[in-house]
């Protein structure tokens, strides 16, 4: 632990939004800088949960010499936090963050060992709590804000399987997008409609059966889980503001069923994000995924977005090759991690 920091870890539910606001503001700045992601919408939603005092998690207090050991805990600066949410017998660690060290209002350096130590301490407390909770059979987390490797050793030591994921971006401003040729006979490209939720959920389950990403996110394994996944994209700001104009399906004209889908959101005033793209296995290698991707890219460009981003598991070679061929480049790498009780 860095000199001058004496941590005290306390229950997140004891604190209101006002106490966490400075930390969330610092976190929002990092989301913008590292990912071009406006995190304020997510932060506002999180603040609402904090005021309900029902969000499981921990805060880190700086009880170092500079703060004075007799200070009221409600006035002791919060320098970091972590939270989780429960889904039946699964827990999802939503985030872990500690404020960068500051000197006269400026970050000391991009590499802040004390900050990493605070985050590791919080993550360790959360893992210990969840792995010792009898009702929790599975734990998932995607540490999107953190560079890959930041907490890999801690996670693996606790029994997590860690997968590397890529955060890719493509410039849209003054850039040429290869035009889509007419779609093949027998298929129809159309925009997303709210009535597509059920059919799209079935598509996701079929697309990710025996796929590595279903090991990272078990919502892909069931219709009900896929429906929750889609509802969170369409209705909530966690993945940005949903953009139906940039979201499309490809239908098989014979069955009138979707065989591929792309969903897009706006994560900042100038940046779009592909939140989901998938194809039924029987319809892959026909150029349909590329058609969906270009259709979404074209719409984002028409809207005036200057950049487009997406995430992909590094081991998904086919998808990575498609994105690189369409002009995406790596901006960031991060870890996704899963713990399963008894490795079932």
Automatic annotation (TrEMBL):
The keyword Nucleotide-binding does not apply. Residues 187-344 form the N-acetyltransferase domain. It holds the Pfam family Acetyltransf_1. InterPro entries: Acyl_CoA_acyltransferase (IPR016181), GNAT_dom (IPR000182), YpeA/RimI_acetyltransf (IPR050680). Keywords: Acyltransferase, Transferase. GO terms for molecular function: acyltransferase activity, transferring groups other than amino-acyl groups. Coiled coil: none annotated. Signal peptide: none annotated. PANTHER family: ACETYLTRANSFERASE (PTHR43420). This is GCN5-related N-acetyltransferase.
